[in-house]
Fold:
Amino acid sequence: MVSRVIPVEPFDLVIFGGTGDLARRKILPGLFRRFCAGQMPEGSQIIGAARSDMDDAGYRKVVADAVGEFGGGRDCESGTLDAFLNTIHYVTTDAMGDGGWETLNGKMRDGHVRAFYFSVGPSLFGHLAERLHRFGLATPDSRIVVEKPFGHDLETAKALNATLAEHFDETQIYRIDHYLGKETVQNLMAVRFGNMLFEPLWNSQYVDHIQITVAETVGVGGRGGYYDKSGAMRDMVQNHLMQLLCLIAMEPPAKFDPDAVRDEKLKVIRALEPVDWHHIVRGQYAATEDEPGYRDDVENPKSRTESFVAMKCHISNWRWAGTPFYLRTGKRLKARASEIAVVFKDAPHSIFGADAGRHRNVLAIRLQPNEGMTLDVTIKEPGPGGMRLLDVPLDMSFADALGPDAEEAPDAYERLIMDVIRGNQTLFMRGDEVEAAWAWTDPLIEGWQTRNDVPKVYDAGSSGPEDALMLMHRDGRKWREIKA
Ligand code: NAD
Structure:
């Protein structure tokens, strides 16, 4: 297969927080893989900027270790790492003070794309934006990349948007949601809008319901302090699940253009009805003999923060009126598995009689593991003895269908960073989208607080609280099994 990669211009990329966990685990190894793939044009440079006192040689060692630990490219030739390290520099920079900024400015070159990655805590975003201007680093076409969490609620998100807007235009702000960088998520748009087969059926007349599941096996780990102030709703639903919901539910944009796509996503969020609190289930994982429970992990025996949430939502528009969307996400569940399942309605009449049972087409889009899609199709069970029906999946694993090309496909961070360099905002959240998402989740969170809602305890390694299963059972439906 011939891949068509859109070339990028030589760039200067500054990673604030370049010594941190995210930079070491995702950003730097990702950049190295793009370098191996020949996508980092000659003359580009990457500058780590953080508080630690270090020189270029010291930072190159940090980068080499990160690449060693978190993965290089499959086809990287020996010697490539040295060439990559030659593009790396470091400037000790204080986001809250003025130290290092003049030096950093001296490293920036005219005529190159400038991108500033804010891989630091959100309390520093405003300080960085202000200093980028004051010290003359920001040019009219510079870009800033902002990590989640983007606010804690509507008020803080608005304040953050306003602070960034003082220094940067919306077209320069790239709010990352790495779910949008996943191959399958983008493929969702290709499948919906590139085929004639699905779109005519993509509405409440033919779709019974849609399920979105993002299940993790890990607990909150070392992030307990942060997580307990956040919870599954803020940490996962407000951003990742909402983005998936938007892509599955939005109207076809007129073209594949950043604002056309984001306008349609925004309309979905605005059409979401407030959720009846009977239609939300929250949970916390219990301790096992070997592993601590949620409250132990966050060291808060009275915590009421949820590590699991499931809910039924409705989108009030012509296309989706009457089709429920069931969302669930949680930690310490039975498998690490994320998928979107579009469950179609029964055929209007069964010519095979009641004994043939109930059969439904399900289009399941797997985000992880093994990105791919399956379409359950009803066929005749082979063999004699009458007409018995069976659902079999038409299975398209990207790894099987696309071979080595799928393995070498850039991961979400790599793709998104390259989109920043290209100046393509399609897969980044716009400020108004983020605010609309908070405007929808805030009342739900406030409702729990007013009602003193206590999350249900669920067994680690299960599918979540029993009540979450009941949420579906009451509607005569059931969740798909969470399996890796
Ligand atoms: P981290 O604590 O590991 O790293 C923070 C970095 O910021 C360090 O390099 C540190 O030197 C730098 N820093 C802190 N204060 C500074 C200052 N005053 N001036 C200059 N540099 C300063 O954090 P992280 O896990 O890498 O997370 C960074 C951001 O990315 C956070 O907003 C986090 O929520 C977000 N994020 C992280 C992950 C992840 O997997 N780690 C995933 C999604 C989002």
